[in-house]
Design brief:
- The structure is a single chain.
- Strands 1, 2, 3, 4, 5, 6, 20, 21 and 22 form a 9-stranded mixed β-sheet that branches.
- α5 packs parallel to α6 and α8 packs across α9.
- This protein starts with a strand and ends with a strand.
- The protein is globular, with a radius of gyration of 20 Å.
- It has 9 helices and 22 strands.
- With 383 residues, it is of the alpha/beta class.
- The chain folds into 2 domains: 79 residues, Roll (Urease, subunit C, domain 1), CATH 2.30.40; 287 residues, TIM Barrel, CATH 3.20.20.140.
- This is N-acetylglucosamine-6-phosphate deacetylase.
Length: 383
């Protein structure tokens, strides 16, 4: 995907604009110098106009948990493949994403982090998310259990040092030895500590949250199930106002009712939709490698070869947005917050909202809520 050659000054007018304050049915968005200059309703100001009547204008999607797409994974040592993976999601409206890495031995993972650090500095991705290797073997999902290990301080330090400030989030199972200390170490280094792939009891989760863990990695999936006499990680994380909960809204990992229940309880300030996408996203069925494990994608659903365990998804954020609205009962404002605003807030970025001063990351959705046009930092993107 390439740009048209630089930022444009334009006024998008005539569409439905979803702002933090409400939905403007006959709204307009003015873009100048790569930023949103003004947002309003009714008659637009004078200037170069792009008529988007019949469309819905939302901020660019922010995906904080994505492993790849377009046939390529973020684990690739080839920068061109990483760029293609990011580009594959950009055409679906994801203007900001974290490159998620699966469990590997710490030295190998450090090399992957180091390579991605350079691409983060170039702006290809917004940072790095390590989904492992500090996970529970009992809830490992598509992670090789032979590689998993406790979050020793030296291992965490090695990975953070390799990232040179680009590691933004690490997922940890709180029941592992040293987990609470590792959470404190991450928080002290301005890294989001996430809880996931865990067989913990509620009592084991609480100390990690008290230490600063603030994200639930794909709530429900890769976790001890919710039980009315032992709420486990699902109950502990969903019911804690300090924790933002990730939800994979592909309608495979979670039933629409589960999405709706979680989103209603957590509220829009604590709900975030993710893809957990692998290289197969945007490509199709076939056989793929995920962290050294063979994954087969059939009818768009990835599972470990020889088993039924889900291994990521083929989801893109535009589909997650449509599913949230059309199948799960979220309002447009709730869906925008879950697919854009909350992710930007977690990462401390100047995007995710259609309001003056924010970066002009914009998706124009057609009447079916499918992306018609995508703008990144004021530049239109094309195939």
């Amino acid at each position: 995907m390439s740009t048209w050659g630089g930022p444009v000054d334009v006024i998008l007018t005539g569409g439905r604009v979803v702002t933090p304050g409400g939905v403007l049915e006959n709204g307009w968005v003015s873009v100048r110098d790569g930023r949103i200059a003004a947002v309003g309703e009714g008659v637009a100001p004078d200037g170069p106009v792009n008529d988007v009547s019949g469309c819905t204008i939302v901020p660019g999607f922010v995906d904080i948990h994505c492993h790849g797409g377009g046939g390529d994974a973020f684990t690739s040592p080839d920068p061109a493949k990483v760029r293609r993976a990011a580009s594959a999601h950009r055409k679906h409206g994801t203007t900001t994403l974290l490159a998620s890495l699966v469990s590997r031995p710490v030295p190998e993972l450090a090399d992957q982090v180091s390579a991605l650090a350079e691409l983060t500095q170039e702006g290809v991705v917004a940072g790095i998310h390590l989904e492992g290797p500090f996970l529970s073997a009992a809830r490992c999902g598509a992670h090789d259990p032979a590689i998993l290990c406790p979050p020793e301080q030296t291992s965490v330090t090695k990975l953070l040092d390799a990232g040179k400030g680009t590691v933004r989030m690490i997922t940890i199972a709180p029941e592992l030895e040293g987990a609470v200390q590792a959470v404190r170490q991450l928080v002290d280094n301005n890294v989001l500590a996430a809880i996931g792939h865990t067989d913990a009891t509620e009592a084991q989760v609480r100390p990690a949250v008290d230490a600063g863990a603030s994200v639930a990695t794909h709530l429900f999936n890769g976790m001890r199930p919710l039980h009315h006499r032992e709420p486990g990680p699902i109950g502990a994380l969903l019911d804690d106002d300090r924790v933002t909960v990730e939800l994979i809204c592909d309608l495979v990992h979670l039933h629409p009712t589960a999405v709706r229940l979680a989103a209603r309880h957590a509220g829009r300030k604590r709900t975030i939709l993710i893809t957990d996408a692998i290289a197969a996203a945007g490509v199709g069925d076939g056989v793929y490698d995920v962290g050294g494990l063979e994954v087969r994608v059939v009818d768009g659903v990835p599972t470990l070869a020889g088993g039924a365990a889900l291994a990521g998804s083929t989801l893109t954020m535009d589909v997650a947005f449509r599913n949230a609205v059309n199948s799960c009962g979220l309002t447009l404002m709730e869906a925008v917050y879950a697919t854009s605003t909350r992710g930007a807030e977690l990462l401390g970025l100047d995007t995710g909202k259609l309001q003056p001063g924010c970066a002009a990351d914009i998706v124009v959705l057609d009447a079916e809520l499918k992306p018609r046009d995508v703008m990144v930092r004021g530049e239109w993107v094309k195939d």
